[in-house]
Amino acid sequence: MAEERSARLEAAEVANWLRRHPRFLEQHPDLALLLVVPKDQGGSASLAGYQLEVLREKNRELTRRLHELSLNAQENERLAVRTHQLTLALMRARSVPDTLRTLVAVLGEDFAGEQVRVLLHAAPVGLEAAPWLQVLPEADPRFAALRPLVAGGEPYCGRPDPERGALLFGGAAAGVASCVLLPLPGRGLVAVGSSDANRFYPGMGTLFLRMMAEALATALDRAD
């Protein structure tokens, strides 16, 4: 019993010593050929083979990560181009009605917005009624449900609760699984809904969304 305990202590001491001297096997390559390590399927493998497999696994993981980074870069490039095109389209609009129509058209076509709604506190002069437009004064009690989401001026991404969804999307609310809200300080907000619950989610990057909201707010100020 004492010999077994002593053997365990010696093994622990050897392991600790090797941790402090990780280059030991470089100086004694003959030992590296003799050492074996367990395999997942049982049995054993040479240390060199084990290290080779570890390197291969790390290489596969790096390749996967590089692929993800490449896909993210491509998606960001597409978003940058679309955001730039939206900004140019808004700059070409000459009036508030034209600016809003342009926004809704671009969000629906280029950004694949399934449900696009514009909620304003005051009706724009010269803009006829449209299914995507809702006028709701800021003092209206119904707007209280949305005020916390837009008070900070940051885009909101996530799933709308039934009350907010019904207010924003009306009869189409049942088909909206996620949405993004773009605040327009002093004017209202723009809502884009999707049937995909993962399309807009809390924690997603909002840089391009902020850029779009700022471009729209600037275009509206210029067209007033």
Structural write-up:
With 224 residues, the protein is an alpha+beta fold. It folds into 2 domains: 1-27; 94-223, GAF domain (Beta-Lactamase). Helices cover 53% and strands 14% of the residues. It contains 8 helices and 7 strands; from the N terminus they run H-H-H-E-E-H-H-E-E-H-E-H-E-E-H. The strands form 2 sheets. A 5-stranded mixed β-sheet has the order 4-3-7-6-5, covered by helices on one side. A two-stranded antiparallel sheet has the order 1-2. Helix 4 packs antiparallel against helix 5 (96-109) and helix 4 (47-92) packs parallel to helix 8. It is elongated, with a radius of gyration of 30 Å. The model has no long low-confidence stretch (mean pLDDT 86).
Low-confidence segments, ≥5 residues, pLDDT <50? Answer: none
Secondary-structure element string:
HHHEEHHEEHEHEEH
* CATH homologous group name of the largest domain: GAF domain
SS class: alpha+beta
**Annotated CATH topology of the largest domain:** Beta-Lactamase
In percent, how helical is the residue content? 40-55%
Give the number of DSSP strands.
7
Specify the CATH architecture of the largest domain.
Answer: 2-Layer Sandwich
What percentage of amino acids are in beta strands? 5-15%
Condensed summary:
This protein has 224 residues and is an alpha+beta fold. Helices cover 53% and strands 14% of the residues.
SSE topology:
Elements: H1 2-20, H2 24-27, H3 29-34, E1 36-38, E2 44-46, H4 47-92, H5 96-109, E3 115-120, E4 133-135, H6 147-150, E5 156-158, H7 162-169, E6 178-184, E7 188-194, H8 207-223
Parallel strand pairs: 3-4
Antiparallel strand pairs: 1-2, 3-7, 5-6, 6-7
